[in-house]
Structure formats: C-alpha cells, structure tokens
Design brief:
The protein has about 290 residues and is α+β, with helices and mostly antiparallel strands. The chain is built from six helices and seven strands, in the order H-E-E-H-E-H-E-H-E-E-E-H-H. The strands form two sheets. It has a four-stranded mixed sheet. Strand 5 and strand 6 form a beta hairpin. The longest helix has about 70 residues. The termini are far apart.
Length: about 290
Amino acid sequence: KHIAWVMFTLVFTVYLTPVCAEERSLSETSFIKIAKPENTISVNLKNADLSDVARMLSEQAEIKIFLDENLTRKGVSKITSKFNDMPIETGIRRLLGPAVSSAFVFSKETGKSGKERYRLDSVKIFESGKMLSADFREIDSRQKHPDSEASAPSVYYPPLSPGSAKAVPSSPEALKYDIMLARQNLDIIRRKSNSDLARINEKIAGLKRELSKKPSPAQRAELSDKLIRAENELMTAKTSNNTMILDEERNIRELFSASSKAESRKKFTDMMRDAERQRRKLRSEK
C-alpha cells in the first residue's frame, strides 16, 4: 500500500505540475497593451471578465469606457482573445467579439503645427443592436480615486451626453442633443478616415518612389516588405473606418426614430392634459 501511494503521488505530481505551470503562465502573460505612436493594440486574454477588460482598456488607452450593465446580467462577461499590433479601433472590435457592439467617440485636436489630429475619446460597449436600451456604467481610469494622491488629469473630456449613464433619454430635448453629438462625431469620423487614408497613401507613394530608384537587392526586399505592410494597413483602415461610419449612421437613425416616438408621446400627453384642463374648467363653470 505504501509503494502504491508513493507511485500515485509521483504520477499526480508529474502530470499536475505542467498544468499548474501553464495556468500560472497564462495568468502572468495576460495583457492589453496599446502602442501610442503606432496607435495599435495587442491583446492576450483568456476568460477575462468584461468589467476587467473595460478597466484595462480605459487605463491603457486613457479613454472613458461606457459599459452596458445588461451584458453582465445576461452572462456576456468572459472574453478570450489573442492578437498583436492591430489598429486600435479594429482591435477593440475583435477583442469584444460578435456578441458585443461598440461605438467610438472621437475628438478633434490641433497640433503645434496647426495640423488637425483625431483622438479616441471614449468607447460605448453594449449588446448588439441595443444601444438605446443600454444601462451604461462609466469607467474612467483618468479620474482621481478618493484614496489616491495622484493628481487629476489636466485635459478636459466632454461627456457623451447629459443622459449618457442612463438607459434611454426621457425627453425629446435630450434625444435631440444626442443626435447633435452623433452628427458631430460622424463628421469627425469621416475627417479622420480621410486623414488616415491620405497618410497611408502618402507612405505608399514614398515607398514606390524609393523602389523606382533601383536600390540594392537587400534594400529592395526591405522596401517591398514595407510596401506590402502599408497596403495591408490601407485595406484595414478602409474597412475599419467604413464600419465606424456605418455604425454611427445607424446610431443616428435609431436616435431619430426614438426622437420621433418621444415627440409623439409628448404631443399625446400634452393633448390629454389640455383635455383634462378643459373638463375641469367646464365642471367649475357649472
């Protein structure tokens, strides 16, 4: 019996140790990393909680995340994803997967040279097709924690809308404000798309000029590799920007539909109130 117990212990140790080591390795290598100059994202996550993913995104990208609490309630809360050096908007969509939608909000900045730049300001994460009924919780890693001595950020980030943390804007005025913001964001996305495509096309043209100068075989191979990567970057940028434009156009249509319904409800409520006032007036006259 003693020998059998020793054999069992040895077998258990031999087979269990690699598994434990693998689990430790996976947990130690889990990350979301964003390269600022290249504006790319790399991810290695296994069964990560959606709330933790939202927090990591906010910390790494230094943006606000609006997370729909309905996703957690419905069990869409675990994420497994792995990729390297993808454009940040495309990478976030791939990270979240098909069951979850995301809406990107950008801001326009003017650099010291006077050239316009477009910065990702915030991301809404919600159940596909249900942005207006989402129950958003704001996650902003830039905000100073009450127990922290870190200084607050010096940059001002405007809110998405007055009712951005609520489920559905309750008044036509709030919806009109959301429509105005969505239109502004759509304009910025289109400008950003044109800027991105112009920058990449300029890079491609420069590489083609270098190739036309008959470089050495080693230089030609390096330039050809860069050209292939730039052309792939162009295709990715076109797809990503077109998706963002279509998503924002759909959001605007949904907001218009909700606004029309809210206006109809308001008119009906006003009509009923007027009728009630008339009835009270007639009763008082009698």
